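Writing this down once: the sequence line spells out the residues, with the fold written below as integer tokens. I am pasting one below:
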Amino acid sequence: MPDALSVAIAASDMAHHRGDDVTFHRHIHGQLSVTLEGTLRLQNETGWWLATPGNGIWVPPGLLHRALYTERSRLINLRFRQGFELQLPENSSLIVASNLLTELAKEALAIQHHVDSGAQLELIAQLLHFQLRKQVLKTDLFVPEGKDKRLRLITSLLREDPACNKTLVQLAAVAFISPRTLGRLFESEVGMSFTRWRERMRIISSVEKLVNGEPITQVAYDMGYQSASSFTTAFTRIIGQPPGRYLKETFTPDKS
């Protein structure tokens, strides 16, 4: 896609295979990625977001970020002309892709190469801007990781192996710091205790697997839980509802 946009919005239909990893990069334009199938995990220097079908991620211009796909996924990427980011968050944000927002993304993709599409794309961009300001409100699928290198060594290790049951003492030894220092880093850098952070990370990681059709019992064991019931209790505490209901509402949303 060219560096300078001659129109208000440029759309691309993207398909990614399981295991695809788009390494750290920046865009000169603000970008909205709307997930249609599978999941998108977007990471920056402070943590990572998980976008499931019916959600999207806003990435402002110039922000260093990385995209990972744990399953085959399809999404629409929308890049906007300079200035679109005004009144929108300065950091990445998970958004609710309402029915209208999703259809606008699809329409931009369908008409962008038409000779007379400029005026329509301008209107679509304005409507998307309104939708983004209205829908940028979801934070439940975000896992902070902090900036301290010692802390990120541990959060990265646990992100790659959510079932790891090493204690704070054992993990502190990996980072060559004291358990007290590691505990303080969790409190100061991510705003929660080590125990709370690990549970949050496990539950958000489990959403990725559940959305891709893996059975609840298997996901529970993969995340380090001893039973499906203990996993369901933790899931409900973090997400606000049990896994089955969450999945039902994710795939049959009422988001007009």
In short: The chain has a mean pLDDT of 89.
